[in-house]
Amino acid sequence: MTKPVFRFAPSPNGRLHLGHAYSALLNDALARRFDGRFLLRIEDIDITRCRPEYERAIDEDLAWLGLEWERPVRRQSEHFSDYRSSFQGLKGRGLVYPCFCSRKHIAERIEVIEAESGEAWPRDPDGAPLYPGSCKGLPSGEVARRIGAGEVHAWRLDSEAACRLLPGPHVFTRFSLDGTTDLVEAEPWRWGDAVIVRKDVPTSYHLSVVVDDALQGVTHVVRGRDLEAATDLHVLLQRLLGLSTPLYHHHGLILDPGGDKLAKSRRSEALSALRTRGVTAAEVRQRLGFAAQPMPST
Q1: CB within 8 A of 13, min separation 6: which ones?
Q2: Furthest-apart CA pair in the chain: how many Å?
Q3: pLDDT per residue as tens digits for the range 232-241
Q4: DSSP labels, 98-109
Q5: Is residue 76 helix, strand or coil?
Q6: Model pTM?
Q7: Domains of the chain, CATH where assigned
Q8: Neighbours of 244 (CB within 10 A)
Q9: Could you report the per-residue pLDDT of 12-60, keeping only the tens digit for each?
Q10: Residues 6 or more apart from 239 whose CB is under 8 A from it?
């Protein structure tokens, strides 16, 4: 039997914090527990925010924690052709459509809809309003003209067409740290017509992550609970692309004293800052529950 494969996949758009450390340590601990492989993947499709110095810092932080991973490391920015190929497969089956809308246009359209209906417009699991479909029914001639003129556009998954093609149910396996598993039915409709190719790069987080996991043979996806809902969309994309579906575990988040999750955007204290003020890797591991390589309960 092939060995199970785990991965830690940070974005080099800022410094790693304790939340990242927990996820990396947990993936490594599970890989060792199941005699599996531990991969590091650099998710750097955001070419405007990702920087080489942050990638170097990821290496330094993980090595400081005592982790080792297989090389070479997969960098998403080096594999846009893989994502284009998968996207073209979806496009060839009429499962995507171009969207020329700006965020401002979408917000204004939803404001009008809410005013006319007197009801709140539905949101996706992340709290963003579902796309109202402004570009979904554009005539093919207009689409060709606008694309030919170089008008900036994203590509959205036509969720109705996708669900007609694959009505489901779309079931995936969730595993707990005690080794038990259960089946979960995905609900991809919660995401509406999600963007799967951004305006600035030929992919998106959702598309690239499912392609990468399949190409790297990832069998167990272990990531934060804040990404749990995204699994619904990922499972649908896996089915549409004919890709295998890993087992999933979404761990609890490391919170700050105010009860909020740690985040680069909130300038949560970085591992490098902890190191600078004298905190040792052993102390970090102990704080996160990995002092003697135990299996945390969250």
Answers
A1: 44, 46, 49, 50, 51, 54, 264
A2: 64
A3: 999 999 999 9
A4: EE---HHHHHHH
A5: helix
A6: 0.94
A7: 5-100+135-288 (3.40.50.620)
A8: 11
A9: 999 999 999 999 999 999 999 999 999 999 999 998 999 999 999 999 9
A10: 166, 170, 245
